[in-house]
Design goal:
Layout lengths: L1 H17 L3 H15 L8 H16 L11 H7 L7 E7 L2 E7 L3 E5 L5 E6 L8 H15 L6 H24 L3 H16 L1 H11 L1
Helix pairs in contact: 2-3, 3-5, 3-6, 5-6, 6-7, 6-8
């Protein structure tokens, strides 16, 4: 039992140690944007792939290493260095939730203490980060004329699709059905894009 607790503690420490501050992430994103605006660098696959990664990382930063289905104690362990500003009881569409409020997000737990959703209130950067990541990956796809990076692109696109789906489900659970519809559509667009179809199409060929 002590060994299990020690391993869980070590995992939490390692997660916190590798977490990057919003300022550092924003700086990396701005650097990637600048590179994409450089005519010489903009002709390279790596420039656009890195830009996609920067946007995707910025989108995931507030909820990094945590996802719905985790018990509250595990979430608090992983986010140990982040202070809970306050907490309160809320009812969403007739469903009661216990909500932990952080500087950049709100964590919604059900009555069993299991995380149901994460609502980001202060993103790392402005704009539709998922859409911008998708557009950057698509540009990288266009520059991969030899098709040698298709598998790499499919892997990141699948993660992006999962992000879009989680985002859509969160909007739906909050009762924002118009936003949820748009986000479900975005999920479908990513799934039907060449980024994810490429590997299967090549395999069939």
């Amino acid at each position: 039992m002590k060994r299990v607790l020690f391993l869980m503690f070590a995992l939490a420490v390692s997660v916190v140690s590798f977490a990057q501050s919003p300022e550092k992430l924003a700086k990396k994103l701005n650097s990637a944007i600048e590179a994409s605006n450089n005519p010489k660098k903009a002709a390279k696959y790596a420039t656009w792939f890195n830009l996609g990664e920067a946007y995707a990382t910025a989108f995931r930063a507030p909820s990094k290493d945590v996802w719905p289905g985790m018990p509250m104690d595990q979430v608090k362990m992983i986010w140990g260095s982040q202070r809970v500003i306050s907490n309160e009881q809320r009812e969403v569409q007739g469903v009661p939730f216990f909500v932990d409020i952080y500087e950049d997000k709100e964590a919604y737990y059900n009555q069993a203490g299991v995380l149901e959703m994460i609502v980001v209130t202060k993103p790392v950067a402005e704009g539709d980060l998922l859409q911008l990541a998708f557009e950057a990956y698509m540009k990288a796809y266009e520059l991969d004329t030899k098709g040698s990076k298709r598998e790499e692109l499919a892997e990141v696109a699948q993660k992006l699709k999962d992000d879009a789906m989680n985002d859509a489900v969160t909007a739906y659970m909050l009762g924002d059905f118009a936003s949820a519809s748009e986000k479900f559509e975005k999920t479908a667009i990513i799934g039907e894009s060449p980024l994810l179809n490429a590997v299967d199409a090549m395999a069939i060929y």
